[in-house]
Amino acid sequence: MSPTTGRNLLTDNPELYEARFPDPDRLAGRWTQDCLRRHAAGPRVLDLGCGTGRDAAHLHTAGRTVTGADLSETMLAHARTHHPGPSYVWADLHGFDLGRAAFDAVVCLDSSLLYCHTNDQLDGFLSSCRRALAPGGLLIAEMRNGAYFLGRTDLLDTPTVNAFTWQGIAYRSTTTLTVDRTAQLLRRTRVWTTNDTDDGSEPVAQHSAWRLLLPQELRHFLAAHGFEVLELHDGPGPRTEPPWQQGELPGTAADSDRLHVVARLRTT
C-alpha cells in the first residue's frame, strides 16, 4: 500500500489524514474559540492531541498563545511546517508536565481524551491538566459519548465504508466498531485498500480503541480532580449532525453519539 504504512496509516501520513478529514472552514477550531470566548478564558491555550495542527493554528490566528502537543513526532513535524504559529511539543496525555499554571485552557478534541483506557490513565491526564492550568482555567473536551451505546447498536451493526482519492490513488476504508464491555472500550478495526496495485501489497488492518465514558462518570472524575463542570451536552458541536454553527449555544441533553464538556478548575 502506498504511502508506506507504519503503526497507523493516517497518523503516519498527516497529509493523507487531512485529505480524509478535510476541515476547510476550521469548524473544530471555531467551535473551540467560541467556548473559550463565552467563558472568558485567558490567552494561553494547550491543544492536547493537536494532530496536524489545524485547530491550534486557527486558535493562534484568533489571537491565542497556543502550544500544540501530540504523541506523534510525524504529526508534529507536519504541523510545524504546514500550520505555523503555535509552539509544537511532544507530550503523552496519560501524564505530562509542560509547566505549572502555564495555561489558561487545555483543549482535547476528537476523542483524544478517550485514549485514556484505564482509570489510572484518566487520573494521570486530569492530574496533569490540573498542574498545567492556572486557577480558574478551562478544560474543553469533545469526544464520543459512552451513554449512546446503552441499548443502541446502530453504529455497531454495519461496517462503515469511506472512499476518497489522494495524489491519484483511490483509498477505501472499511471500519467496524465493537464494544468490549469488560474493558469499557469501543474497539475499532479499520481495513484499508487502494487501487495502487503496482506494489502488490495486501489490505492493511489497523486497530484502536476509545474509553466509553458515561456523562455522570466523567463528572465524577472531573470533580475528584478539582474541576467544576460548566457544560456537558451532546451538541451542537464540530462532529455532530447537523454541525455547530456560529452563535449556537450548547444544548442540555447527553443522548447523541458525541459528548462535549467544559469544566473550570476551582480556585480554592
UniProtKB/TrEMBL annotation:
Boundaries of every Methyltransferase domain copy: 45-137
Keyword Oxidoreductase found: no
A biological-process GO annotation: methylation
One Pfam family this sequence matches: Methyltransf_25
GO molecular-function term, one example from the UniProt record: methyltransferase activity
Keywords, sorted A to Z: Methyltransferase, Transferase
Region (Disordered): 234-253
Lineage per the UniProt record: Bacteria, Bacillati, Actinomycetota, Actinomycetes, Kitasatosporales
Protein name (Swiss-Prot/TrEMBL): SAM-dependent methyltransferase
Domain of life: Bacteria
